[in-house]
UniProtKB/TrEMBL annotation:
Name of the featured protein: Transposase
Record-level GO BP terms: DNA integration
Lineage, highest ranks first: Bacteria, Bacillati, Bacillota, Tissierellia, Tissierellales
InterPro entries listed in its UniProt record: Integrase_cat-core, RNaseH-like_sf
Entries under PANTHER family matching the protein: TRANSPOSASE RV3428C-RELATED
Domain of life: Bacteria
Residue span, Integrase catalytic domain: 130-291
Length: 291
């Protein structure tokens, strides 16, 4: 078998292809094919999981399929087709199986087809751009960092939690401070965000925090009843992000970081004694950044 890992290990160390060929005992053409394919696929370093068999399937999947008697799949084409509207892996597998039978070859079973595509997507660490529509989604979350105000009587610092809402299409965002992260604060924050945006999004995408979701079951999370009532009243739908899946709400995650740098950090020494005063300052900064 071709020593893919050894060839690439030497190549990444700057060894010439002539020397690699002599070292591994393969022809210079074979070495050149492996290096060219690796460069084409953007492979720049080796990790522990990249065994020789892994690299064989990664660099030349069509050879592996043919060797096992299966009709090969062009995964680049599959991924490109999958980005089209209404396209599914089920349909692509059906078309692939038809081509295989027409060529009198053995097609992969659907589950195997999906598993191989999953490996392909993971290897490339591919992402697919999500087409947003104006007013379709509002992503919401609490910022991890906090601000504070001083108690007039004791001089004690009171922590202020920052609510953030973002419209993914326009990237407009809203922020407001609260004394706590209770359900009441959460609902009031939504209402103020609707007022700020002058409208209600069709879909609300919160994290799986207790103020919005009672239980984060896979596929069917149990929503907080008051939160559900608010959504029903405004004619919106709540679709919580999956647990530990920040990419499900990338816009608000980005806005949280942006607000932490541009607003929370800049107001860290701002002295005030009332929440209304602090929120006026936050809103002033929000308007400035949105503009």
């Amino acid at each position: 078998m071709i020593q893919y890992r050894r060839i690439l290990d030497l190549h990444f160390k700057g060894t010439s292809q002539r020397t690699i060929s002599s070292s591994v005992g393969h022809s210079r053409q074979t070495v050149s094919d492996v290096v060219i394919k690796a460069n084409h696929l953007g492979l720049v370093e080796l990790t522990d999981e990249m065994t020789n068999q892994w690299l064989a399937e990664f660099l030349f999947p069509e050879k592996e399929a043919i060797a096992k008697g299966y009709f090969p799949v062009d995964w680049e084409v599959v991924h490109r087709e999958l980005q089209k509207k209404n396209m599914t892996l089920k349909l692509l597998h059906y078309e692939y199986a038809q081509c295989a039978r027409d060529s009198k070859k053995i097609p992969y079973a659907y589950r195997t087809f999906c598993r191989h595509y999953g490996k392909y997507a993971k290897k490339y660490k591919l992402t697919m751009p999500i087409r947003r529509k104006p007013g379709e989604i509002m992503e919401v979350d609490w910022a991890g960092d906090k601000l504070s105000i001083k108690d007039r009587n004791t001089g004690e610092k009171l922590p202020i939690y920052i609510f953030v809402a973002t419209l993914p299409y326009s990237q407009l965002f809203y922020a407001e401070g609260f004394f706590n992260m209770t359900s009441q604060s959460w609902l009031m924050a939504h209402i103020h965000a609707f007022e700020y945006f002058n409208g209600v999004a069709e879909v609300l995408v919160p994290d799986n925090l207790k103020t919005g979701v009672n239980k984060a079951l896979r596929g069917e999370p149990i929503l907080n009843e008051a939160y559900r009532d608010l959504a029903n009243y405004y004619g919106a739908t709540i679709v919580p992000a999956r647990v530990k899946s920040p990419k499900d709400k990338p816009s608000v995650e980005g806005s949280v970081g942006y607000i932490s740098r541009q607003i929370i950090a800049s107001l860290r020494y701002y002295q005030c004694f009332s929440l209304d005063d602090l929120n006026s300052k936050i809103l002033e900064e929000v308007d400035k950044l949105n503009d």
